[in-house]
Amino acid sequence: xxxxxxxxxxxxxxxxxxxxxxxxxxxxxxxxxxxxxxxxxxxxxxxxxxxxxxxxxxxxxxxxxxxxxxxxxxxxxxxxxxxxxxxxxxxxxxxxxxxxxxxxxxxxxxxxxxxxxxxxxxxxxxxxxxxxxxxxxxxxxxxxxxxxxxxxxxxxxxxxxxxxxxxxxxxxxxxxxxxxxxxxxxxxxxxxxxxxxxxxxxxxxxxxxxxxxxxxxxxxxxxxxxxxxxxxxxxxxxxxxxxxxxxxxxxxxxxxxxxxxxxxxxxxxxxxxxxxxxxxxxxx
Length: 284
Prior knowledge:
This protein is an alpha/beta fold. 43% of the residues lie in helices and 20% in strands.
């Protein structure tokens, strides 16, 4: 009997060990491609783009990691419906939360004891956490790691850029107003200064189509992102129109590209096509 108990315990230990090994070693050494999603200012829908980009890649058969590097506004868990999940430790490092098959997520929002707790940290503490996200998380083998940066060009974006080697490129998210040229210019120049290729600019909140009559209304004008791309000499990836379903999906924790038809999500898919083409071209 004693031998049987020992065998059972050893079997459980071996199974646990195997599961940890499947998670992979800590760090990002086995990540093939790394993409940054950033913006010159807040409130442009950067996290919405990052989440739907990551899920779209999963839909195409890739294994994907999503790093929420926005320390003070960690909204990724809410948008993926994993607010009640917690990060666990293992012999090979901290294990990211699996939001859906093929998508691993890390966020400071998964470390807080309460959703309403503000993160009141100075720079060195934030930098230490971002370093842990890159070195102590058992990401395992991934096709893509999507990094949702905080808005602006301050400490956090700079730290991520310095800590993550061989970033494939940055996706700049902006809005249609002409003032977006100013913010986009800063984000593009930031990427160039830290030697990260600019994949292109996404113009978010570009027009609204009335669900009753089908008329398009340009609430915030249109074309600011495209004009910025031309002026800065970087690709224009496409426009995402204002759609109440995108807002609803973020609130419900069900990504927009998962629960809507192809006609609704075509704007995202066209952008993903260009991102995929950029990465493949860079690898050849």
